[in-house]
Design goal:
Radius of gyration: 18 Å
Shape: globular
Distance between the termini: 15 Å
Number of domains: 2
Largest sheet: 8 strands, mixed, barrel
CATH topology of the largest domain: Diaminopimelate Epimerase, Chain A, domain 1
Helix content: 10-25%
Order of helices and strands: EEHEEHEEEEEEEHEEEHEEE
Number of strands: 17
Number of helices: 4
CATH superfamily of the largest domain: Diaminopimelate Epimerase, Chain A, domain 1
C-alpha cells in the first residue's frame, strides 16, 4: 500500500493485531524510521482509504526494558494508555522473538509487566499489569476513574440495546471533563460478571472493546459493591476479558487485564522518509 506521492519513500512492514476486536496497526520502530506524523497515522487508520484500525502502536527500544510502547489513536494523536493495545504489543514482541513469557515494558503512564500464558499460530493469551489506581470521582450515580486513560463509567440496564454512540459522545464532550474530555463506558451486571460497551475519545466512536474501559468498569463495580479483591469476567462486543484487582479503601493495586491477542494479517506500506 502506498500513502504518498512523494518520490522519497520508505517501505515499512506493518502487522495488524486485535484484542477482542479492538484493532491496531503494529510497527517495529526500533530503528526509529517511522515518521510520527499525525496526518500519516490518521490516514493509515482510516477504514476506507487506509489499512483501518482503532489506533497505531510503535514498538521502540528502551534502555532497561524489553521495549517502549507508543500509542496513537486513529485521529493521529499520541494518546494515553491502551490496555488491549498493551496486550497486543506484548504478543507482537513475542512474535519478534524479543521477549520470553515474562515481559517488562514502559508506556506513557509508566512501567508495565506482562505474562504470556499461552500461544498458538497467530494467537496469544496475555495478562497485562495495569497501573495502580488511587481515588475516583462521582457524578451522580456515575464514577470517573483514571486507569491510565480517563473513563466515566455508567451502570445501566439494557446496555446491549443502548445508543452508545450518541450517549457516549455526549459524555465525552461534557464540560465536566474539559478540555481533554473522557472515554465513556456503559456497564451492566450479568450472571457471569459484567457486560461493557465503550465510546473512545480519539477514535470518536464505539469500539468493540476497550481494555482501560473494562478495567475502569470492574473497579467501579468493586466500589459499588464493596469488594476488596477478586476477578471479574467482562463480556464486550468483541469478546471476553478478565480483570483481577485488590482494593484498600480508594486505592487499587494488583490490577491485571487478561484476554486474547490475535494477529490478523501483515503487509508493507510506503510512506515519506
Amino acid at each position: 500500500m502506498r500513502f504518498t506521492n512523494s518520490p522519497y519513500l520508505l517501505e515499512i512492514p506493518f502487522y495488524k493485531f486485535h484484542g477482542t476486536g479492538n484493532d491496531f496497526i503494529l510497527v517495529d520502530d526500533r530503528e526509529k524510521k517511522f515518521s510520527e506524523n499525525k496526518e500519516v497515522i490518521e490516514h493509515l487508520c482510516d477504514r476506507h482509504f487506509g489499512i483501518g484500525a482503532d489506533g497505531l502502536i510503535l514498538l521502540q527500544e528502551e534502555k532497561g526494558y524489553d521495549f517502549r510502547m507508543v500509542y496513537f489513536n486513529s485521529d493521529g494523536r499520541e494518546s494515553t494508555m491502551c490496555g488491549n493495545g498493551g496486550r497486543c504489543t506484548i504478543a507482537f514482541a513475542d512474535f519478534l522473538s524479543l521477549v520470553g513469557p515474562e515481559v517488562r515494558f514502559v508506556a506513557v503512564d509508566g512501567e508495565h509487566y506482562g505474562l504470556i500464558l499461552g500461544k498458538g499460530p497467530g494467537k496469544w493469551q496475555v495478562r497485562l499489569r495495569m497501573a495502580d489506581v488511587t481515588g475516583y470521582r462521582t457524578f451522580g450515580d456515575d464514577l470517573f476513574i483514571d486507569t491510565g486513560s480517563p473513563h466515566l463509567v455508567r451502570f445501566s440496564e439494557g446496555v446491549k440495546e443502548m445508543d452508545v454512540f450518541h450517549l457516549g459522545r455526549k459524555v465525552r464532550y461534557s464540560t465536566d471533563f474539559s478540555p481533554g474530555g473522557t472515554n465513556a463506558d456503559f456497564a451492566e451486571n450479568t450472571p457471569e460478571g459484567l457486560f461493557v460497551r465503550s465510546y473512545e475519545r480519539g477514535v470518536e466512536n464505539e469500539t468493540l472493546s476497550c481494555g482501560t474501559g473494562v478495567t475502569a468498569s470492574v473497579l467501579a463495580h468493586a466500589i459499588r459493591n464493596g469488594l476488596d479483591r477478586g476477578t471479574v469476567v467482562v463480556d464486550t462486543l468483541g469478546g471476553r476479558l478478565g480483570v483481577t484487582f485488590e482494593r484498600e479503601q480508594d486505592r487499587f493495586t494488583g490490577i491485571w487485564l487478561e484476554g486474547p491477542a490475535v494477529m490478523s494479517f501483515r503487509g508493507k506500506i510506503q510512506i515519506d522518509s
